[in-house]
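Appendix B. Raw example, untouched.
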Amino acid sequence: MTRLGWAVLALLATAGARSPPPLPIPPIPPNHPPTNLSAPVPDPNVRAPPPTGPQETQVRVQDFRADMMTNGLGYTPGSKFQSTEDKRPIETPGLTVQVPLR
């Protein structure tokens, strides 16, 4: 390596080895904090909003075929792998049961 190369390497090594910038000065608390204000506390009387949906058990028939578009795995955008499950013209339906918790 030439002298110029060594000089550039030494310059880069010393330029990158400087100390980090100083931290900002934190705010100074007041000498006499206000005593007439209390700290914020949670409200013990707060209630949850009323439920908007039906409150009974629901049973529905639903098609569970998930139409997932997979980008990646070597496929072009918008294309996907088609399994034997996807080749069926009619999907067997399933039941969805929703039970509200009280």
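End of appendix B.
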